[in-house]
Protein 1
Amino acid sequence: MKGYLVLKNGDVFPGQLLGASSATDVHGEAVFFTGMTGYQDVATDPSYRGQIVVFTYPLIGNYGISDVEQEQSEEWQPRALVMGECSSDGYHYQSKETLVSRAENAGAGVPILTDVDTRALVKRIRTSGAMEAVITTNPETVTWENVTPIEEQELVKEVSAQTTETFGSGDTHIVLVDFGHKKAMVDALCAYGAKVTVVPYDTPLSTIEALDPDGLLLSNGPGNPKQLQEQLPAIKAAIMQYPTFAICLGHQLIALAFGGDTEKLAFGHRGANQPVIDTRTGRVDMTAQNHSYVVDRASLQGTELEVTHVNVNDESIEGLAHDRLPIRSVQYHPEAHPGPSDSRHLFSSFFRMIAEEKEVNVHA
Ligand SMILES: NC(=O)CC[C@H](N)C(=O)O
């Protein structure tokens, strides 16, 4: 069926619609992802909730869909996927589903718009910025009334765990505060010897205390971090009490909790090759990224936070450390999925930080 992506500025990009809910108009924020692989990880990453993801790589779906390895959550998360060409053969995961069959059977109702001039579309987003968009079968009838802008949607509430769940059986107990975590994060923690308890984003401090964690992980998640303003005092109280590592949305929340500010990038960083330098060691990692917002450097003046990592391309802030407490955060994704795992060592630094803290407490 013929379909269209209509940008809020009026530009229309035609294509072919696949998927269960192809007849319905779907609103979202049009953003682009530059990785050559990782489409399944992207399609299931809760950070993409509310967004229409345009893939810059022209051929998507060619290695198939895995049962579990690439799956980051149980649902398809973006509002829609847009691509140049959608492969109907899953080459690597041969006996499994393909992207086409997944879209066609998608109970979640995530349409895929293929055969789109994604090059032109991405150039438009680069010049005009990430923008609201609609996937539709009839561009004439598109309306922007009664649509809540993504900044005002309570997306974390939609994706956060409803109940507490425990994974792994290691000796180090990590409580993962779930703003919309990716499964790869739990897997990475378990691989380093953790037992992980995933708790809803608004879990009170007393419940966290009752779980007696060795450390906290504040996860990634969708939307504007300022949506969680009300949670900041509780987040601050918790992270001041336990060694904490925070990723992406979690990193932004740490900045906000300590009096810093965040701002929105024109079109964000979404891909698998963002170079990040550790300003203390000079080491550069190629990183997996997926974010619209960044911590504002000037806002950190006078706070207890120090910048530890910087993006080599645009000098935006990529990592923070508390000047006194064992609190570290990064804007990028050390758990990868999709993208390189160069920065997986940050998980071992987290476990080292926890061990050091235990030492200090033993001798205190
Ligand atoms: N991956 C994430 O956690 C994204 C954080 C936040 N929603 C942003 O877009 O900046």
Protein 2
Amino acid sequence: MTDRLHLAIIAGDGIGPEVIGQAVRVLEAVLPSGVDYTSTEYPFGAGHYLATGEVLSDESLAALKQHDAILLGAVGGDPADPRLAGGIVERGLLLKLRFALDHYVNLRPAEIVPGVASPLAQPGDVDFVVVREGTEGPYAGNGGVLRDGTPHAIATEVSVNTEYGVERVVRFAFELAQRRPRKKLTLVHKKNVLVFAGFMWQRVVDRIAAEYPDVVVDYLHVDAATIFMVTDPSRFDVIVTDNLFGDIITDLAAAIAGGIGLAASGNINPAGEFPSMFEPVHGSAPDIAGQGKADPTAAIGSVALLLEQSGHRDAADRVRAAVRADLDARGDVARSTSEIGDAIIARLST
Ligand SMILES: NC(=O)C1=CN([C@@H]2O[C@H](COP(=O)(O)OP(=O)(O)OC[C@H]3O[C@@H](n4cnc5c(N)ncnc54)[C@H](O)[C@@H]3O)[C@@H](O)[C@H]2O)C=CC1
Ligand SMILES: CC(C)CC(=O)C(=O)O
Ligand SMILES: [Mg+2]
């Protein structure tokens, strides 16, 4: 346990500030009194970029590195705004942070808890964790356009997979699987077509599996994984996968586990060389921004992951218990963002 938490808050765009407002209230309500806690808000996001021209300067990155953890809402503005073309904020801020802070583990748990309705006809057990690689794959920025603007333009987006990068995230996933009761790890890839990267992932999994003989190892092509996530989610325990597949299947995982408004995540730098960053799986949801409709539960669940990673396990458990109690009592009554925050805070045990 660390007794210092100097937190950076990037509330971001759209519903980001709405959900982060509630998440910070919860965090501050559960932090043990002896912790040296400070919070610093940073304005980064699409709005800040449009107002100032800064996405994330080197000085800002250096300032963020001084913190113990980062809590992020969501970034991204109107996709139709030509000034934001090319994912300038998503890539220049969010991905830049994940890469610069070496967040090679993108941890995304999915669980149906009592009181939560799943759209699945027969929900079964949804209780798995996706370990998504966070620094490589097609998101690494290796690509370009030839003959741009002509009828013969060629666009490439190269998936980068290093043995080093794959090995460290696969090892993390095995460690996690070994600590869980079912001890099962599923590699999700597309090795029947993406043979160069897929074979590397499989080879690394096979090699590391020898060190974890009590972990059952499975493989699924990503397309089949989406079938089983809907028809038989109980077959998953820990999933390890690359950056792109992990992005896609975790929105699906969120949907089957009660909705994107509930899905928390952590961008983890396991060795603690750099601050880890915690954020809901969802984006800035411009379609509901400013209406008090956003569910802050995903952001609050991300606070639980932050507390856990910072060594405050009791506080993390208190947040999770309060979220569970609230979900169990929620019913069909529509509540505003702040009403959900109030209800969860009221359920925090002492
Ligand atoms: N980590 C991040 O900062 C991310 C940013 N984005 C960015 O966010 C913007 C919008 O992206 P979309 O593809 O529309 O994905 P989105 O996740 O923002 O929204 C998808 C759907 O889920 C709903 N939704 C999302 N969060 C919710 C919540 N907490 N409560 C209730 N409903 C919620 C939205 O209203 C929308 O109908 C884009 O600019 C995108 O690039 C997208 C994903 C992640
Ligand atoms: C906006 C993307 C860069 C990120 C994303 O969708 C995610 O991490 O889930
Ligand atoms: Mg996503």
